[in-house]
Write a structure and sequence with these properties.
mainly beta
């Protein structure tokens, strides 16, 4: 089941696997370093949120990162916040379904048990629609309370040589225990075949926000507006974005690509953007989601068809943060060493031990500016 909005819950850390490598550290082989500061004596371990600047000094797999203090190399584990949503279905019976020129409506009976619920999926077989949704709750079908008055559902489907289908028929609302839900879908008739009600526990994962350099051009042959976003370096993970535009009353499909060189583009997915302000419907969707990428360039191609291009005034991108966990003594000085092309991912016992740590109790530390490693010695180039 696809949720209308991507929301994440932090449940654990996924520890990246390590391949065999010796743990000895040659300080002369690493190009850059950054001092690690902060932390108290509240625990024996610390957690560092990797600054975005680190990625431009590391290989894409991040294997050339080392944490070092005066005693030498410090074992660490690199973690990514896992993404999941706890969802439980609440039994519901739909009845009084009616549909006409003014819209579609039905009632869902969730039974007398008083179960908590906060989301509904409306099962629609119609294609190419965009509708506003109002959801009300009641215990007796006489007195109704509004839960949400500006919900939205939509579908964009093109059945062609290159088929495109983007659909969102999920509506979330404040948690409730009402037995009855009255769902009113504005606009023309829709072929509604059912509804499923859920209770979802959602917590936002920690994300980093980026404002990439943007270049916008018009492709008259393909009838697209292309926005190329430059993250400045490969390696920075990103997976969703928000478009800024002054345009109104449009609905456009988009194609999303990524590239490391701005010439070889890989298609990631399709999306659907709209902003409508009329007397019958007011709503917008300017967010898009795609499989996580760490390539430098992202291209958003807005498919204009025969319509006038919309303005693209900016794009914000977001990615789940990477975190480094390591044993920590605040009395010692620590550095993160970055950049060694021939480095392999280290293997530490700490990788197995770290899964038993309470991440929420760890000291938070930060990294200073990246500087050239004063001990670095470039490898000698052999003479032919």
């Amino acid at each position: 089941r696809a949720m209308r909005k991507v929301v994440f819950i932090i449940v654990s850390l996924f520890f990246l696997s390590a391949v065999g490598a010796r743990a000895d550290f040659d300080i002369n082989a690493w190009k850059s370093r950054a001092r690690i500061t902060g932390g108290q004596s509240s625990s024996e371990y610390a957690i560092l949120q990797m600054p975005s600047e680190f990625f431009s000094h590391l290989k894409p797999d991040l294997s050339d990162l080392r944490i070092v203090n005066r005693d030498g190399e410090v074992p660490y584990v690199l973690g990514v916040e896992k993404e999941t949503v706890s969802s439980s279905k609440v039994p519901a019976r739909m009845y009084n379904l009616s549909s006409g020129a003014n819209g579609t409506a039905f009632i869902a009976d969730l039974g007398p048990n008083g179960s908590f619920h906060n989301a509904i999926t409306i099962q629609v077989t119609s294609e190419n629609f965009r509708r506003g949704v109002t959801i009300e709750g009641s215990q007796d079908e006489k007195s109704w309370r509004t839960l949400i008055s500006q919900g939205q559902i939509f579908d964009y489907t093109v059945r062609d040589i290159k088929s495109v289908s983007v659909r969102d028929t999920d509506v979330s609302y404040p948690e409730a225990t009402f037995r009855y839900l009255r769902v009113t879908i504005s606009g023309g008739s829709l072929d509604v075949r059912g509804a499923q009600v859920f209770r979802e526990i959602q917590l936002a994962a920690r994300e980093a926000a980026y404002e990439p350099v943007i270049s916008v051009s018009e492709n008259s042959e393909a009838r697209t507006t292309d926005a190329v976003l430059d993250m400045a370096t490969d390696g920075i993970p990103h997976r969703r974005g928000t478009l800024k535009t002054a345009s109104v009353n449009f609905n456009r499909p988009i194609a999303i690509y990524d590239s490391s060189n701005k010439s070889d583009w890989r298609l990631l997915t399709y999306g659907y953007l709209y902003r409508v302000e009329t007397s019958l419907f007011t709503g917008s969707n300017l967010e898009f989601v795609y499989p996580e990428s760490n390539r430098r360039y992202l291209k958003i191609s807005v498919l204009n068809g025969d319509d006038r291009p919309i303005s693209i005034d900016g794009v914000s991108l977001y990615g789940v943060v990477r975190r480094v966990i390591f044993s920590y003594d605040p009395a010692k000085e620590y550095f993160a060493y970055l950049g060694r092309p021939d480095a392999r991912r280290p293997q530490y016992d700490f990788e197995k031990i770290s899964q038993y740590l309470d991440v929420s109790s760890l000291d938070q530390v930060s990294a200073g500016r990246i500087e050239e490693n004063p001990e670095y010695k470039a490898p000698e180039v052999s003479k032919a």
